[in-house]
Amino acid sequence: MLNASTRDQYHTLLDAITLTEADDQPAIIFVATDAEPITITRRAFKAQITNCAMALRGIGIAPRDLVIIAHTQNLESIYAFWGALWLGAIPSMFPTLTEKLDPDFYINNLAELTRFSNVRVVLTTDDFAPTLSARLPCTVYGTSAWLNMSVEESLPICDNKAKETSGLQADDLPSPRLRGRGVGGEDITAFLQHSSGTTGLQKGVALSHRAVLNQLAHYADAIMLNDQDVIVSWLPLYHDMGLIAGFILPLVTGLPLVLMSPFDWVQHPALLLKAIHDYRGTLCWLPNFAYNHLARRVRVRDSDRLDLSSIRAFINCSEPARHASHTLFAERFAANGVSMKQLAVSYAMAENTFAVSQTAVGEAAKLDTIDREALQRDLIAAPAAPDSDDALTQVSCGKPITGTAVKVVNEAGDSVGERQIGELLVKSDCMLTEYFMRHDLQPFDSDGWYKTGDRGYIAVGEIFVVGRSKDLIISAGKNIYPQDVEAILYEIDGIHAGRAVVFGVPDEREGTELVAVVAEVDTYDQEALRQIQLAIRQQIARATEVSVSYVSLVERGWLIKTSSGKTARAANRAKWLAERENQGNLV
Amino acid sequence: MIEAEVRAQLRAFIVKDLIKDAKYPLADDENLIANGLIDSFSLAEIGVFAEQQFDVYIPDPDLTVAKMNNLNLMVARIMRDAK
Q: Within a 13 Å sphere around the CA of B59, how many CA atoms are in the beta-carbon half?
């Protein structure tokens, strides 16, 4: 098992147990609502990825080439990712085009990324390949064009007779262990994680083999990972939590991974619980909204016979953890064996590979009740009585994992003391190397600290996150930059540039932030207003896949502007909330 | 159960609780999910609502975007099993 004491036995991700001990134990079990589970043994997994590596080499992919996998989340995209790794290329998972997204927006974003990052190839579905191919400045392959064709016609490694004639076999590729010690070794980039922005150019977080292995080793210790663990995940693989915790971690440590499509899970949340029950899952990472989604939208008859007591930890990560969500979840599934002791929290980011901190597994995450007024007025997390009017309950994100240091700084950049609010800075041995091909972006300060943009405090060695320095909205685990959404609004007929604002509204029921839009319009015509409202919802969903929860069309002059003429999001948000409260529409 | 009642209750639930605009004039064949009016999370919520309100259990394989993308489709599916 990879952990701090065995870390030096690993040199690259290809030293993964799933590959070095390729036996008949399950590597991945893929479950779906309307299909039988598919079990992939380690042996089959290795055969598939070496097959993919050969096929990729067959289409001219070389070590260090950037391979974007813009695919539906399925076994093929998983094999392609590891196949690229095996070849020494740099894979990166990218979200797929969904029905809801506008193809033009999606393709333009991908085209821009492709130009900036010198992408060598984009792998996608057969259906989507012709469209992408016509619009991207790099080679695009649908599945049958690279995998099947290469295997059957160009590099026949499945057929013994063909093997003899081509002379190419998986074994011809250098063995992973040897390659890891070759030129560059642990410090070469293993893969990229792309920032989960709304629109616009995404940043490719470049992670070395060393950084990822350091993270996995330290994190394994933090969660007391052991040979009996079974990881269950519905998370998308283009996001750090899904990619590292719900994908790389189990495959490198050789633990079974029970995986499902995020699209399937969102519509059928009980699928995750059934998977935990069926495979005796022990670890499951979830963004906060998922606790509410599961508690509120799994029907009793779908959960009443499920045993969830095998779980050592549900780990809340990637958006602010809320005590109310934990309570709701623990109460809803108490009869299924869930208790608060199973509800852990992690603070994580792609730039640190994944986890920065983790609460103790097997214990309920610590709570800190603080005074809201002191927080806002004095930037201090002053302890408050839980029943006082101004009490605010914060959930701990735990202690930094080994190898990662966290400090809190004020606006001048000076470290502040215990319980003082400031920006969280992180320094570690598992940091990104760079933003790939973006030398204009410097992730570190002169002392090597990464500025997270998150605001928080430290109390008794544990990290508490209270907000963000920027206007970023995190809705259902997805990062949304208001300025990106506002740019979309300005293009809509009936809305003038600079006359619309987007902000997040915390929602107890959903356990996440909902997106609100306020736009000034010049018309009172009901049909025209309806069309504008519909256009706002449609255009934003098509560009970002985010559903807007509140659309308010207001008269000209409603929006508050800053002295420089910019839209003041916080002030407009406060005004909108106050108006709703006065109308009796409490959010 | 009368279809018109199911339609009225479901429409009220969708515009008030999911679209969050009780005055929204939702058309029977309006594309709910692909148009961004509601998201796919809401399908699970509609499953819960149908069970609580109409005592109709819609199994997961039927709770998909293709099968539930507008009010007409949802009402037809509920009426199929309504007692």
A: 3
